[in-house]
Each structure stands twice: as C-alpha cells, then as structure tokens.
Amino acid sequence: MHVITIRPEPASSETVANGAAQGLAISAFPLSSIEPRAWQGPDPAEVDGLLAGSMNAFRHGGEELARYHGKPVLAVGPTTAKAAREAGFEVELVGEGGLQKLLDQMDERPLRLLRLAGERHVDLAPPDGVTVEMCITYAACDCEMPPKLVETLQAGDALVLLHSAGAATHFRNECERLGIEKGGIALAALGPRIADAAGSGWGKLRSAQRPAAGALLALAKEMCQKAD
C-alpha cells in the first residue's frame, strides 16, 4: 500500500522521517503551505498564558511573538509543545484530545489566555473564570493536487494520512474536482472530527485511537498490514 502525507512543509518531511523510523515508507505530496499573518496582540501584562493548537503558531508567529516570552504555554499536544520550547517558551501544560479538552482540564481560577490560531480554527467554549482572546498568526493556503499524486491515487492501493480537518476537506474536494474514484483510497485520520470532514465514499476511513502523530502512524501500519 502506498502511504501518503499531504501536510505542508516542514511537517510533511517530519512525517516521512518519523514513518521511516518505524519501518513505514511514506511519500510526501504537500497540498498546502503555511504563510504568516501580520498580527498584534494585547499588552503582555494582560495575558497570563498562551494557548496554542498548532506548532505553526510558533514557527510563523514572527517578531510579535517575542513580546510574550516569559508567558507559560498551554499546548494542544507534544509537537506543539516542542515548537514552543524551540521558540524559547516554557510549557506549562500539554494536552491530548484537542484544545477544548485542554481548557476543560483547567483549574477553577481566573485566567486570561491569548490564543495563537490559524485562519481555520475550531471554536472554543472556555470554562468559567477563563477568558480567551484570539489572534490569527498564520494561514494554511491550499494548492491543487500535482499530476504525480493524481496518478498515484488513480492507480489505487493508496493510504492518505489526514492531520487536520482543513486538509481533509481540501483533499476530498480535489478528488471530486478531478474525478478520482474515492472507493480506491483508504484514509487514516488523526481524530473523528477530521474523519468527518473527509466525508463518505472512501474505501476505508479510520481514526487514530488518540490524536497524536505516533498513534496515527501506528494506525497506518496496521491498515497496511491488513491490506497485505
């Protein structure tokens, strides 16, 4: 089975390398690129911490991000936490299962969070006592499917990894636009919300047991083994 990642760079190359370390050959066909957005946040004195749902918040946050050094980071998962540390931030909490679940774990205390988000983001419902101000710091810009990927998908026996709902929606739209038979493609999604965004009609569609990159690769290996 031909395993494919459509993540933007450098995440796509990281997925290929992580797969290789687990004996899983993955081909990279990025279907989007990440571009920074100009932004201006509130006075750092009015912020108790940073809420981040993607490593892109730190990789593309620009000079404005430096104003918030010294503020603890609440990261959606290990990859985002790693990017925060590399950008010089201390990580206070690392979640598993999405930003909403992370917020729901917060103690009942007054807390003012600055959310660093992309243009495509999930709405959140902060618990009592927690206020969240959001700044858009980056955007995922979709691109058309390259001919080589079209050829690979049309040949069948392909497994595509989906790391975000936006990517899932774009991939589905591109397959439909180009008339690619979805029944010959298997999908492995990072979570149920992402799987829902992919829609129906695929040969196989499964979600990882937990929203972590390692869990998604484990699912991909399992799906490949069952296909052999």
TrEMBL record:
Q: Which Pfam families does UniProt cross-reference here?
A: HEM4
Question: What GO biological process, any one, is recorded here?
Answer: tetrapyrrole biosynthetic process
Domain Tetrapyrrole biosynthesis uroporphyrinogen III synthase spans what residues? 15-217
GO terms, molecular function: uroporphyrinogen-III synthase activity
Name the InterPro entries for this protein. Answer: 4pyrrol_syn_uPrphyn_synt_sf, 4pyrrol_synth_uPrphyn_synth
- The name of this protein is Uroporphyrinogen-III synthase
Give the originating organism.
Answer: Alteraurantiacibacter aquimixticola
Top-down, what is the taxonomic lineage of the species of origin? Bacteria, Pseudomonadati, Pseudomonadota, Alphaproteobacteria, Sphingomonadales
